[in-house]
Description:
By secondary structure, this protein is α+β, with helices and mostly antiparallel strands. The chain contains three helices and six strands; from the N terminus they run ααββαββββ.
Amino acid sequence: MESKPPFPPFNLETAQQKVQMAEDAWNTRDPEKVVLAYTIDSQWRNRSEFLSGREEIKAFLYRKWAKELDYRLRKELWAFTDNRIAVRFEYEWHDESNQWYRSYGNEMWEFAENGLMQNRFASINDVLIKESERKFLWERG
């Protein structure tokens, strides 16, 4: 059986660890790796899109990172209880025309006993920014 520690119920340390693990995974921009944090039948809402299961999530992530170029994310623990975690996040990316954006949002996560995320609900807003206004500069590798 698949598992991804730490497992619920969460405490402050394990909730922060889960958030950091998610940030690190998403910053790889590797759908094959990221999708392994979710249950086979995970349910998502991302903006106005509703997804069901790893295969739909994986396809979504491939589309996302084909559009959101040089994506860089920061997540922050907002609250937690038992098997749920709430985070706030912001990320920067640019489109094909090199227009930069900063996207802000909140996510609510619910975990199965095995530590995989079974539900993810994300609300996200985008703000146009100039490249000179970027906060998340990093080495391209």
